[in-house]
Amino acid sequence: MTGRWIERWEPEDDTFWHETGKRVARRNLFLSVFCEHIGFSIWSLWSVMVLFMGPAYGVDPAGKFFLISVATLVGALARIPYTFAVARFGGRNWSVVSSLLLLVPALAAWYAMEPGTSYTTFLAVAALAGVGGGNFASSMTNINAFFPLREKGWALGLNAGGGNIGVPVVQLVGLLVVATAGAGHPRIVLAAYLPLIALAGLAAALGMDNLAPVRNDTGAVREALRDAHTWIMAFLYLGTFGSFIGYSFAFGLVLQTQFGRTPLQAASLTFIGPLLGSLVRPVGGRLADRYGGARITLGNFAAMAAATCVVLYASLHTSLPVFLAGFIALFALSGLGNGSTYKMIPGIFQARALNRGLCGEAAAAYGRRLSGAAMGLVGAVGALGGLAVNLAFRQSFQAAGTGTAAFTAFLACYAACSAVTWAVYVRKAAESPARVGPAPVSAEV
Description:
Blueprint: E1 5-6, H1 14-43, H2 45-49, H3 61-89, H4 91-100, H5 103-112, H6 119-128, H7 131-146, H8 152-164, H9 166-180, H10 187-207, E2 210-211, H11 218-226, H12 228-259, H13 263-270, H14 272-291, H15 293-317, H16 320-355, H17 360-400, H18 404-426
Parallel strand pairs: 1-2
Helix pairs in contact: 1-7, 1-8, 1-9, 1-10, 3-4, 3-6, 3-7, 3-12, 3-17, 4-7, 4-10, 5-6, 5-10, 7-8, 7-17, 8-14, 8-16, 9-13, 11-17, 12-13, 12-16, 12-17, 12-18, 14-15, 14-16, 15-16, 15-18, 16-17, 17-18
């Protein structure tokens, strides 16, 4: 290793993995979790800032939903170039840069958060927060390259789950500020995060590594773009992660707008769902390692549809306790599904390699190459699902004053995701495997 670049990396080689690889991979994983955690906190910053925006700011609920929609959109689009930045600049190098870039939206929010700021300025500042969403794609692509296939479900789930926890943590910080200093002091939230951003950049610089075998491969990108499974998995991830991030950003506003909660009351409930969804994401990955990603994902979408029916009932009858139970269940299930769907991606491309006659490290390298390229595309589309969630809420509240119509649309989406999962990955398991466990990959789901 020279200049933090590792020249040889063969995680599928058991001797290499146990003697060297596991220790290095886990160090990079845990530092990646921290950097991604801060990225998610900044990306979801405006789900907290809107709770501080009282009547003096002159922004109605529809305007607030649009602010968080803008942050969601930019974060989704940023995931595509962030994915390729790992191969171009190195995982460690890009982790340093992407972490320090978070200072820009944090400082911009510091400047903007006061009554009298124009709505156009708020839109621009919210858009800057989207860079935090890009961190997920580069982090997942990087960690995917470090681990052997048999451990990817756990590693990717832990990496993503630890990052996702950045959403409830920033919401808890917001709750603490509202409860102690009042709704007139949003800059205290930003003051807490500025040193953490700097610490994330420093930790990445001192403790992470670049993998030389991971090189910028436009051929992999083109191949992933042409592969139908990239887009099928993107659609499924839109249903799981799109729900998680969309609900995370909108939950507090829905509580305020539909159920008349105060900012403090909303903030005291907002963090619970994202926290559960983040904590169970590694569980989804581990279950997929053991039982097969397709089976877990199919059952998960069915459960999400059932939970949405509960939320619909509560929305129609304005029952806050039932609404909270159903909505929090949706969060937990979306987190579980995030882990299982992302686990499917490496398995699908590993099976592609085996079907082409590759074996051993050649098959593993092919799987890493294609799955790494696909993950950025899948993650970007999934994040666009969060944009759709917030725009659906905005339209629903504008038209009817409730979120009922939006939840009806979400129910239809989960039904479609269930049908696709069953048709492509469960019924036709022999064509497109998603089960990858300790045993060699086979064409069986």
